[in-house]
Structure formats: structure tokens, C-alpha cells
Amino acid sequence: TYGQNYTGRLNSAFGQNWIGEFMYGLHKQTADTIPSASQANNSLILDNFAVLKNGAVLGVTDTTTFRTLGNPDSLRLAFVDGRGGGSLQRNYTRNGFGLISNQNRDRWETAARIQKIWGSHTLKFGFEYNENKYKLFTRSSGPARTIGGLPFPGGVRITNNFGACIATGATTAECPAGALTTSFNRLIANAQGPTGITTVTTNAALTAAQLSVNPILILSSVRVRDFTLNTGSGETKTKVESFYFQDDYKVTRNLQINLGGRWDYQQAEGTRSSYIKLNSFWDNFQPRIGFTWDFTGDGKSKFFMNYAKYLETPLPLDVNVRAGGDDIQLDYNANVSFLNAATGASVVANLGCLGCEATPVDAGLKPQTVNEFTVGFERQVGRNFTLGARGVYRAQGSVIEDGSFDDGDHYFLFNPGEPQAGNTEDLACNNPAIGCFGRARRYYRAVEFTATKRFSNNYQLIASYVFSSLIGNYEGLFRNDNGQTDPNITSLFDLPSLLGNTYGRLPNDRPHQFKLNGTYQTPFKLMLSGNFYAQSGIPFNALIPHPVYGNNEGFAVPRGTAVNPFTGSTRTPTTFQLDMGAYYPIKFGEKREFRLMFDWFNVTNTQRAVRQDETVRINSGIPGAGAIQFANSGFGYGTVFQFPSNFRLGAKFSF
């Protein structure tokens, strides 16, 4: 990955009351993900479950037993025998690289901003234009292949999906789902199952602790996916034309009113056709209104209040690529009969090309918006100390997402919960058999207290405390719960059946956040610094699979209310960190200085989980009502990302 940036800027005064700023910028970036030559021709093979025993991952025992008796085109069963000390692991890569990608991401922009002072008014207005371009070729490592007469021209990724059972005795075993029990007994009947096991029964009440120790894995499906994104010799584009004006009106010596508005017009284009046009004057209007009042009149206090509406710009180019059509995205999927999609496999279920057609845009589509209100005050106490407080209320307005009312057969881009006469959601809302999606909601409420001591008497302090809540059913352009990075086309509003229990505390809800930064200069010029941060943990969820969309797409209980059985808490642990530093300057004249620097990060060596495994049930990979699920009534352990303490020494010369 590498990039280049070029900018040009002209700031100039025109007469006594005019100021102009003119800018041009160009960004060019290449972002390639390329494997070594030895891996480029290997298809990615991933096991959803594996067994670790004595420090090594156990191999899979393939058999000649088919799940459906007498049907060689059904799944050929395989198993992993983890008895005698094996532990269950998730998502183990057995071979291959995965997605190979060549990407060019370019942007150019220009702006003209003018300011005029006219009596008690400071007028600001301007024009901005930017154009984002995206050219890419993404495909899977490994060769093209044909399985059972079905071609996969772009290379494939292979996922072996296993279900977990346990041995309850020397000759008996239990599985959490009936379909797994049937497959296990089929192996026993053909004398190809785990040694000694003669009887297998179903027990849906098996817990995570039981299934994680000494497991026996039974193959339940083999998914082959050929995913390609290719703009060819062309590129997708998103263009934005912006206009704004603002008047800062000084009504009296201690009262100023700010009024303004902004418009952002957007057009998204595929490689050959125009896709989205958001050019409505009123839909793009973003008002700005506020005032600042020195309520004591001595220049040491201020009370302020502001309202603003913000628009998402530009629309991410991922929408053009994934939803805009022009044959950019091809996504062929099938379940096949042999482990690792080995030579000779046949197709068990051809799932076709998913999302390979352009997603139509619903009539009257509005741009994505957020509304924000702030109110607060500040007061200088003494010569160098300031206290302040402010409240923030931020609410999601319209949201752009893709959705379907027919279980994924057809999708459209729309504003969830905003039906307009004759559009797709309006027709669905008037059909009792379907119903409405409801609005995408996201509410942030916060109170912040600040204390600032300007640098004087050889020291300074900056402290803040925030008490907040973040609730709703829409996290934003990125989904933490399932790790999806497809802004404006996440899976959240794809199907009405995905919306159960989605309203609640969102992933970045942290009720308490505290920050303290300080510096002190010793009499002999040594500068010392310290920073302390503390914040609440994030809410805990119980993620379950959706019968069509697979793992981590549903919520077993309302969002953010699940209890981690290992900790007994509905949140991850509170985290804190103390950092310290110092530097000593050595002067070489007025304009030259040499610094000796010392940094000590995470002084207390605190290590706590900042995110925990929230998966409570796992799908086997077979779509539809016949899915086999791994019933898991517990949760995994947290993963530590906060680093241990470390030191850094350095030297810097400036002039």
C-alpha cells in the first residue's frame, strides 16, 4: 500500500474586508493485497471448528459414507475424534491465502471559501467539489475449477462446516441437534465412525463447557464460494458538489448569533451507468443555528447553544461496487459433497449467484443525516483556570440501507421506516403479510464536565468526565457485532426477520469516560508529562445465527442485555491506562534545539479484555429451515488487546 498527496492553496485579502481561501488537492492511493507466489495458487480452506490436542490441531478423518443412504451426490461424511484431552477451536485455516485484491483509490477536490466583514456581521460562503474514484479487482486465491459440472471461474474459498458432539462414555455419544445424530449414526452403521462408539442420542441441552472439552466433530456441509469484484478497465465514481453560507452576527458586545446553511449534492456512478442521484434542494439542506452569550459581561464566561444537521458525504464507493451492478460483483455459492471440495465432488445445493444484479433505488431516496443539539457554559475561575459543562443530544435522521421483503430474492436501496406513497416500503407496510421495517434509530446523550488549567507556574492540567448513553437499533456504517464493513449496505435491514431484539445499548455505549492530561516543567528545564484514561466496558450480546444469513446475525435477547456467564456482567471490564513521559531540551541558539525523550506506556501494565466472544449459537452453513445448529448456552472468553507496559527512548533535533 502506498499513496501520493498533492495540495495547492492560496490565501489572500481583497481590500480591507474581504478574505479568500482557494484550495486544490489530489490523493492517489494503491492498496494491493497479494500473496507470495507459493500461496497464490492455493485455495483457502477453513474449518469452522477444529480440535486442539497436545498443542497440535487434529486432522480430519474422511470416509466413504454418504449422509443420504444410496445417494453419492449427498454429503460424504467426515469426522474429528477429539477424545482424550481435545479442546474445541473456531475458524481454523488449513491452507491457502483467501482474497487477492488490486485497488486504486483516487480523490481530487477543490474549494473556494470567502469571508467578508460587514459592520456587525461576518459573512462566510463558499463552494466545494470532490470526486472519488475506485478501481479494483478482487478474487480468491487458487485455480478456477468446475465441480459437478458447475463452473467457478475466479478461484474459490472453501469452508468445512462441522457440528460438535461429545462422548458420554466409552461407547456412547450425544449431539445437540437431530441432524448431527443422524449423520453420526450413519457412520456407525457403516463401521466408519470414531472407534468404540456404538450409540448416539440427541441432547439439545448440551452446554458450551461440555461441547468444548473432548469433542467429536461431524462434517455437516462444505461451502464453496467464488467471489469476485472487478471494475475492469473502468472505475466507479462518487461526486459531491457543496455550497454553504454563514452569518456570525454580533448583536451586542456580549451576544453573538450564528446562522447558516449547507447543501451537499451527490451522484454515484458505476463503470457504465449512473446509479444514485441525491440532488433535492430541501433533502440536502442542513441548517446551522446557535448563539454565544457572555452572561456576566466581563469576558470570562460564556453560555452557548447550537443545532446542526449533518449529511453523510460522500456515499462510500463500496455501494457502487456491491450494489450498483454493471457486472462488478459476482458471488457464486454452492454446497458440495466432499471434504475440502476434493476432486470428484458433486454439487449438493447450487445457491446461485448472490447479489449479482444491480440493487434498484427506491423512489424518493433521501441522503443519510444526523441531527445534533448542544448546550453548555464555561467560566474562568481565577487567572488561568476554566470550568465548563455541556450537554449533547445526537439523533439519527434518515438512513440509507438495502433491504428485501421476499427473504433475499430481490433487494432495493431505501430509507428504513420512511415509506412514501407508492414506493417499495409503502406497498409492504400496506400488506399485512409483510409489514414495515421501522426506522433506523441511534440516540447519543451525554453530559461532559471539563476543567482546564492553562500553562502557568510551570504546569498545566486538562481534565474531562463524560456521562453518556448510546442506544438504538442502528450502529452506523460499520457493524461491530458481525464485523461487516459494507457501509450503507449492511445486513441489518436486509430482512424483517433480522430485526428482532436489535434495539438496545449499541456496541460503543460507555456510560463513564475520564481523561486527565498534565505537564510540569522542573526548575532545571526537564519537562514531565502524564496521561490517565479510564472508560466503562462495552455492552455484552448473545449472538445467534439467522437461518438464511448465517452466524452472528441475530440477537437471542435484547441488544446489550446479555450476561456473560464467566464474569456475571452485562459489560466487558472497565479499562484504564496510565502513560508517562519526559523530555530534556538542549538549546543550540534561538532556532535550534536537541531533545532527549523518554516515554513509558501503560505504566501499571494493566491487561483487560476490551472485546469478548458474544457468539451463543452457530449455524452449520446449510441455508434454510433445515440448518443444523451448534447449540451453545455459554460464551467464550475475552480477547486482550490492551498492551503491556513498555518503554521508548529517543532523540530529536529541530530547527
Helix share bin: under 10%
Number of helices: 5
First-to-last CA distance: 32 Å
The assigned structural class equals mainly beta
Task: Assign an overall shape.
Answer: globular
Bin the strand percentage: over 45%
Task: Calculate Rg over CA atoms.
Answer: 30 Å
Largest beta-sheet details = 30 strands, mixed
Q: Ranges with pLDDT <50 over ≥5 residues?
A: 620-645
Number of strands: 40
Oligomer: single chain
> What integer is the average pLDDT?
88
Helices and strands in order, then pairings?
Blueprint: E1 2-14, E2 18-30, H1 37-40, E3 44-53, E4 56-57, E5 61-66, E6 76-81, E7 87-95, E8 99-118, E9 121-140, E10 145-147, E11 150-152, E12 157-167, E13 172-175, H2 178-189, E14 199-202, H3 208-212, E15 215-230, E16 236-252, E17 255-269, E18 274-278, E19 285-293, E20 301-311, H4 317-323, E21 329-336, E22 347-353, E23 369-381, E24 385-396, E25 401-403, E26 412-414, H5 424-429, E27 442-456, E28 459-472, E29 504-505, E30 512-521, E31 527-535, E32 543-546, E33 550-555, E34 575-587, E35 593-601, E36 609-612, E37 617-619, E38 629-631, E39 638-640, E40 646-654
Parallel strand pairs: 3-12, 13-14
Antiparallel strand pairs: 1-2, 2-8, 3-4, 3-7, 5-6, 6-15, 8-9, 9-15, 9-16, 10-11, 12-13, 12-15, 15-21, 16-17, 17-18, 17-19, 19-20, 20-23, 21-22, 23-24, 24-27, 25-26, 27-28, 28-29, 28-30, 30-31, 31-34, 32-33, 34-35, 35-40, 36-39, 37-38
